[in-house]
Design a protein that fits this description.
- With 381 residues, this protein is an alpha/beta fold.
- The chain has one domain: Aldolase class I (TIM Barrel).
- The chain is built from 14 helices and nine strands.
- α3 runs parallel beside α4.
- It is globular, with a radius of gyration of 20 Å.
- The structure holds iron/sulfur cluster.
- The site of iron/sulfur cluster has 13 residues, from loops.
Length: 381
């Protein structure tokens, strides 16, 4: 995750404080899920399936803030579910910004255009829009036609209104990396500020397990990602990218990106749920971290997700002194000298479409959510 200069100074102070106090496990990025309800039923989403019994529950703003305050997290990603379905999202974002946090709203963008005017641009605030491919592919993966176009319109509107926008892309077994390259090139023309790609985490609650990759598949899929790093403003760290390519090993640091949701702090990680805890401290202390990671728990064997491994790039530059110095220079170059083709939005951008693929019928009826419980106006699905 790339940070503005104001946040880098805050983060440096944060890391220094943790070093001074000898705290070994602490959060870098908090995944805050104020609700699990969503206006889509994406094929690869574990949340709407795992939490279907509590899908209508929400966390009150004050409880979200208490969780952020007690964990002392510098970066907060508000996700879910769909955070723009959460009625108090604007209040939550504003209160986090008042606390000098870097805030991302991770959204499928279906409600973004209609809610945009409620937000105010800020250098520490981003809309992180989910796009898994060009039109046919994305609409197939989210199981609804027209979502890609809505997301593109929302990106254009957000950029015009002065907001920062990043795009998050999940890479599945069938993902065509050339199509992702094409998509990022197109998004650059819309002025998108950065990109994050991550292999899909294999949620056990997702029925279509064949969409997920083994470690060997991931390495094959990411083997040419260097070219992407040179071309686009990637928010993944270069160290995490080397891990995805199989050029280096990293150990899981899931405690660095904890998840808080209506049930509490989810342990051990964003992907797996063995327990929920009342506080971040409890999550860290009561989880036996030595039991998790590849070779220790079979559910972890093929895991290479950024929520487990990307924070390590910041927290644990390991190896010889020379290796650590090289890595530090690499991180510095990535932070300050990444390509930036996205400074100007062009109105004449044309979406290049890949070959058509069949789009399965929406499975919305499998996960009935009363959106009117969360959203004051009538909601069109
Ligand atoms: S390796 Fe880490 S992030 Fe991945 S599933 Fe296991 S505990 Fe979770």
């Amino acid at each position: 995750m790339r940070f503005p200069v104001s946040v880098i100074s805050l983060l440096t102070g944060y890391l220094f404080k943790k070093k001074l106090t000898g705290q070994k496990k602490f959060p870098m990025v908090m995944m805050l899920e104020p609700l699990h309800a969503c206006n889509l039923t994406c094929t690869g989403c574990g949340r709407i399936r795992e939490y279907k019994d509590t899908i209508n529950e929400v966390v009150a703003v004050e409880d979200c803030l208490k969780a952020v305050d007690t964990s002392d997290t510098p970066v907060v990603v508000i996700c879910g579910g769909e955070p723009l379905v959460y009625g108090n999202i604007v209040e939550l974002v504003n209160k986090l910004l008042e606390r000098k946090k870097q805030v991302y709203v991770a959204t499928n963008a279906m409600f973004l255009e209609r809610r945009l005017k409620e937000f105010t641009p800020n250098s520490r605030f981003f809309f992180a829009i989910h796009l898994d491919g060009l039109e046919e592919t994305h609409d197939m993966l989210v199981e609804r036609k027209g979502v890609f176009k809505m997301a593109i319109d929302a990106i254009k509107a957000a950029k015009k209104a002065g907001f920062q926008v990043t795009v998050n892309t999940t890479i599945y077994k069938e993902t065509d990396m050339d199509e992702i390259d094409l998509m990022l090139g197109y998004l650059d023309t819309l002025g998108v500020d950065g990109y994050m790609v991550s292999p899909a985490g294999a949620y056990s609650s997702v029925q279509t397990q064949e969409i997920f990759m083994t470690k060997t598949d991931v390495r094959e899929k990411f083997k040419n990602v260097d070219k992407m790093m040179k071309k686009y403003r990637m928010h993944n760290t270069p160290i995490f990218m080397e891990f995805l390519q199989g050029k280096r090993e990293l150990s899981c640091a899931a405690w660095g990106v904890p998840t808080y949701n209506p049930k509490g702090w989810k342990g051990p990680c964003y992907l797996m749920t063995d327990a929920h805890y009342g506080s971040y401290q409890e999550l860290v202390e009561k989880t036996d971290w030595s039991k998790y990671g590849p070779g220790k728990d079979k559910r972890c064997d093929n895991c290479m997700v950024h929520v487990g491994y990307d924070p390590v790039a910041f927290l644990a530059l390991r190896g010889s002194l020379i290796q650590r110095m090289r890595d530090t220079v690499k991180m510095f170059m990535w932070q300050f000298f990444a390509p930036n083709n996205a400074s100007r939005m062009r109105d004449d951008a044309v979406v290049p479409l890949p070959p058509r693929r069949p789009v399965p019928q929406s499975q919305m009826e499998l996960h009935p959510v009363k959106l009117e419980n969360f959203f004051a106006e009538p909601v069109a699905r």
